[in-house]
Amino acid sequence: MSSVRIVLVNTSHPGNIGGVARAMKNMGCRDLCLVAPARFPDKEADWRAAGASGILESARVVGSLDEAIADCQLVIGTSARGRRIPWPVLDPRRCAERALQARARDEQVAIVFGREDRGLTNEELQACNLHLHVPTHEDYTSLNLAMAVQIVVYELRMLELEGQLPEREDEDWDAPFSTAENMERFYEHLEQTLVEIDFLDPAAPRQLMARLRRLYSRVRLDEMELNILRGILTETQNSIRKQ
Q1: Please, which residues bridge with residue 115 across strands?
Q2: Contact indicator for 76, 112 with CB cutoff of 8 Å
Q3: Any idea which fold 180-242 has?
Q4: Mean pLDDT of 236-243
Q5: Spatial contact of 92 and 155, defined as CB atoms under 8 Å apart
Q6: How far is CA 213 from CA 12, 100, 221, in A?
Q7: Given 47, 104, 148, 160, which residue has the most CB atoms within 10 angstroms?
Q8: Above 80 in pLDDT, residue 171?
């Protein structure tokens, strides 16, 4: 993915170039090509790039889109609107799949982003093999340039990491989860403590313990968390008994 080229055409605001560089570095992309930017290099681009100034320093500046994509076998152009002549259109996820398939065949890939105010021209889009459209909500379809790039490179990154991320959110948990037996002891301890502090009336429990069971079952405590809670209950009981 690091060699998938991000091409920005006639970017008018240098801050957007810096924002794109930062988005790229976040996701492991390094190849940035600028087609006739209005202002570059520029201090505002450096400031917006934050820790991604290396991408700006290595960025290639060319005079035309043809120069930017001359060595590419797959060119994907971003488009925010429909065209009179139908063209293959992908969403960012499918775009990422096609881009990485091409990279696996050692093909050079370029993903082209147009001007902030009007995108790519029809002629520029016709120089692309595929078109990419981000399916924004119809109430507000405008995307900042760096945001659009971030969406696309995020999808590339997620595909690159396929099979490497934990399958479950608790896969790398630092303590074993509590057993059913230990949870029952905790509920007994909790009920006893609530009775002692007059929070639970055994004669009119009103489903309190059932609701607390549902709460802790939903959370799924590990052994360390359970021991902490048992310790709090024990200290609460000790304090009451000293009075």
Answers
A1: 119
A2: yes
A3: Helicase, Ruva Protein; domain 3 (1.10.8)
A4: 89
A5: yes
A6: 59, 48, 11
A7: 148
A8: no
Task: Please answer whether residues 167 and 104 qualify as being in contact, where contact means their C-beta atoms are separated by less than 8 angstroms.
Answer: no
Residue ranges per domain, the chain? 5-160, 180-242
Q: Are 136 and 76 a contacting pair, CB within 8 Å? A: no
Given CA atoms 73, 91, 77, 5 in this order, what sign does their dihedral have? negative
DSSP codes joined into one string, 72-132? -SEEEEE-SS--SS---EE-HHHHHHHHHHHHHTT--EEEEE-BTTTB--HHHHHTSSEEE
pLDDT confidence band for 82 (50 / 70 / 90) = low
The three-state (H, E, C) secondary structure of 30-41, written as one string: CCEEEECCCCCC
For the chain, the first-to-last Cα distance in angstroms comes to 67
Could you give the percent of the chain with pLDDT greater than 70?
94
Residue 243: what pLDDT? 76
Which pTM was predicted?
Answer: 0.74
Amino acid sitting at position 153: V
* CATH superfamily of this structure's domain 5-160: SPOUT methyltransferase, trefoil knot domain (3.40.1280.10)
**CB-based burial label for 239 (10 Å; 0-12, 13-18, 19+):** exposed
Residue type, 83: R
**Which residues lie closer than 8 Å to 175 by C-beta, 6 or more apart?**
222, 223, 224, 225
The first and second tokens of residue 105, run together, are 């065949």
pLDDT digits (tens, 9 = 90+) for 104-127: 899 999 999 999 998 999 999 999
